[in-house]
Fold:
Amino acid sequence: MTTIVLLTLLYLQISPPKDVRVFDTPNDAGGSITITWESSPDAEGYRILRMALPDSVYTPVDWVDAATKRYVDKVEDGVKYRYIIRTERGSAYADSEPTDEVWSHGNVFHRGRTNVLIGVAVYTTLLLSFIYFAKRGKKLFVRKIAGLDAVDEAIGRATEMGKPVLYIPGLSTISDVATLASLNILGRIARKAAVHGTRVIVPNRNPIVMPVCQEIVREACLDVGRPDVYREDDIFYITFSQFGYTAAVDGIMLREKPAANFFLGMFWAESLILAETGASTGAIQIAGTDAIHQLPFFITACDYTLIGEELYAASAYLSREPLSLGSLKGQDWTKLIIGGLIVAGVILVSFGSDWFLGLFSS
Amino acid sequence: MFETIGIWIAALLTLCIFSFLYKDNPFYKFAEHLFIGVSAGYWACYYYHNVLQPNLFVPLFQEGRPIFIIPLVLGIMMLLHLVPKISWISRWPLAFIVGTYAGYYLITYLQTNALEQVTATLVPLVTFSSVVLFVGVTTGLVYFFFSKEHKGTFGGIAKFGIWFLMIAFGASFGYTVMARISLLIGRMTFLLKDWLHIIQ
Amino acid sequence: MRRQLPLAICFVMGVSMVVQFFIPHRVSQEFYRTILDWYRIVFAFSLVLGTGTLIKVHWAKISKKSKGWQYSIITIGGLVFMLAVGFITGIQEGTLFMKIFEYVEVPLEATMFSLLAFYIASAAYRAFRARTVEATLLLIAAVVLMLGRIPFGYYLWHKIPGIAEWILTNPNMAAKRGIVIGVGLGMISTALKIILGIERSYIGGGK
Structure:
């Protein structure tokens, strides 16, 4: 009988979770405390108990299953708390030691993003260094980019034929960097066209991009001493509807018959409709986008296509301005560094060393 | 009744757009211009009711939150583009937007396009596939290197990079075909089933 | 005032967003959300601006009796009608506004989108005619992927779906990664030049 009682007591004797730690959740906006513990072999689950000081009573806040070893509690910033993690099995339970006092607050630096900060610092330094060298007159070589060499040819052809140039700055908004890259190119193209007195038609899907396009083309005309070439009505908003815009641009291509079509910026599914319609009119077509899924369609239907980064290099290439060329060099050197890191990393990982991977993850 | 008229309008407009495949014609021009007008009106109303009303007019005029004067002023500045003499004021809200997103992308793209992509490429060279992945990424980077002419060995590596790009573009192309055909099937189904009731 | 102030605003906002990224504090998160909300408001105002120019352009066509001016009446008519209905009835489900959307705009959108089925065929033919190594690689990959996604591909050769999957997850992935890294660097560089005032096309360029 005594043996049975002892065995039953032994059975009911369950162990509490060990090594319970509490801390303010790192890299967050505040309002949370993280609790971790080593699991107990006897647990069916754990109950989280919390006491907000100066109270003296622990109240249950949640229950988690036996596999859980970490809990993030939503709390009020600045209030001090203590926790107990309770192992539960049927009606039996065992409490951990109460934790130290802990309170939460919003963090002022996200330590998990240190590698991004270092990346920004390195990249910015490289770009600024090359911009500095370029400013001091250092000659900077940039390889040939066929699509951009063809810009002069396209505008020349339009001039000879007495037809306009159609420029589509993508369908995205001004906050899209591809649009901004496209607007930089528009400035260069508008300048070249204005010199020859060639019309540039810029239909817009995005109403914020439209006034910017107007400013760019007007400034380009003024810069080359041809304010007479500028026609505000050639740069207009159509509609925010993706395919409404596409339908209208198709119509423009067939009715105005531009001799050169530029599709530069961000595009979605309409890319192929625009490029194929343009191809059917016999216009020279130069496209460029960083939208990977649209590139195949531009490649098949356009004469020249700027692939991905080439779109961002275009402004520097066309202008040959030292500041822009300098930044392009900075990009190249960063690519070299990234290439080097990939080669080194792949070798290390192939030999079983994983610490290198941690450098890149947040 | 309303639905029947609606389906007839939708079907006729569908045919008007399809007629563009033959050539530009008055039916297409009609549908195109209607499309522009209706959709431009739709988006203007949509943004008024879903953005301006709840996110500006209600907090500013009903809840009396003065901070919302700032976006109101920025918005009005945007409209000043219509006044030629002071159209330059519209540059301020533009600078606000462009600066905000330039800062935002500067950081996020470094994380998503550089750091995360490099991490994903760091795999042990133990299979043919992993070698292909490694070679594809590095030769691609070589292709996008602008400081050296694509000649000799360097040019050869860049050429290899272009081949990878073409395979990728072909893959995207092939992957999309069926999705595009299904769109056409959708329109045909509408014409033959919902409109003409030829198929069930 | 005309150039320096916008450049200063751009710089301040750009740097603020960069700093904000590294600060997880609630104030910083709130700042981020507020700025994005304001962007939507400015965008809504720009729609007014855009719609105004749309009316202006088409009105000019009508008054000058330019070629095809009759169609401009349809555009302005459609726009004004939609605006009137939208403001009078609201844009909830079941209103006349939504009915027009459903029976006019939706089918027009869908039909324009479906034209892609025809254009993708002509683009494929174009790729087929271009007899270069690059075009051939593109075409082969496209054909394999297309066959890999339909039962016919499997019946033709049971390994085709597997090959298609391998192309997608290896050479395709590798090339895209190369593009994405390059694009990322290009974007960051452009963003940096904008913040520093080197690229200023958004204010019309100029010095």
About this structure: The first helix of chain C runs from residue 4 to 22. The radius of gyration of chain C is 26 Å. Chain C touches chain A through 66 residues (CB under 8 Å). Chain C has nine helices and no strands.
